[in-house]
Amino acid sequence: MSQQTRTVTAEELWGMPDDGYHRYELDRGRLLTMTPAGGLHGLIASRLHVALATHVNEGRLGIVVSADTGFKLESNPDTVRAPDLAFIASDRIPMTGIPEGFWRGAPDLAVEVLSPSDRRSEVNEKIAQYLRLGVKQVWFVEPSPRRVTVHVPDQLPQVLHESDTLDGGELLPGFRYSLSNLFTFAR
């Protein structure tokens, strides 16, 4: 992830041309260039997206969006983050509908899948930022050790391993997903 020094606004970020190679985020006005994810990252994110979206749609709980969705979390200077997956509860969807631009405010759930190019310290900062700015849960997925860490504000993180089941708790009632399904890969 590369960083630039000039302060950028969310509006400038929205107007940037798509170069076809990178995604961008803003962290307090600093433009962050995100390297495309690899195959394992994409597979894991896709599996979670399908499971989560199916549950959310069946229960009419809200919406699930992909990594292309930016959330404007702070202003002056602006912070825009794009988690690998995000859930927004139905009662938080604006009466005017889904915004065409960046979503204003935090999602209820942010899912981050660790990529080989990610620095652990930067991911930890992002998780802390999400929780500080209103995200109710963060699921941090690490493909290599095959674990998911569930972060909730003001609680110790819960570390789940491949033999465990991810539970949506009060945020996603009834959601249960076996992590062995997430981390098992047939050839």
Question: Topology, please?
Answer:
Blueprint: E1 2-7, H1 10-15, E2 23-27, E3 30-34, H2 39-59, E4 62-66, E5 71-74, E6 79-81, E7 85-89, E8 103-104, E9 109-113, H3 120-132, E10 137-142, E11 147-151, E12 158-161, E13 165-167, E14 176-178, H4 179-183
Short description:
Helix content is 24%, strand content 33%.
Run of helices and strands = EHEEHEEEEEEHEEEEEH
Spatial arrangement of strands, main beta sheet: 4-7-9-10-11-12
Q: What gyration radius follows from the Cα positions, in whole Å?
A: 16 Å
Q: Structural class, please?
A: alpha+beta
- Shape descriptor reads globular
- Oligomer state of the chains in this structure: single chain
Strand content: 25-35%
Helix coverage percent of residues? 10-25%
Tally of extended strands?
A: 14
Number of helices: 4
Termini gap: 31 Å
Report the biggest beta sheet as strand number plus sense, adding barrel if it closes: 6 strands, mixed
Taking pLDDT < 50 over at least 5 consecutive residues as the criterion, the unreliable ranges are: none
Q: What's the average pLDDT?
A: 91
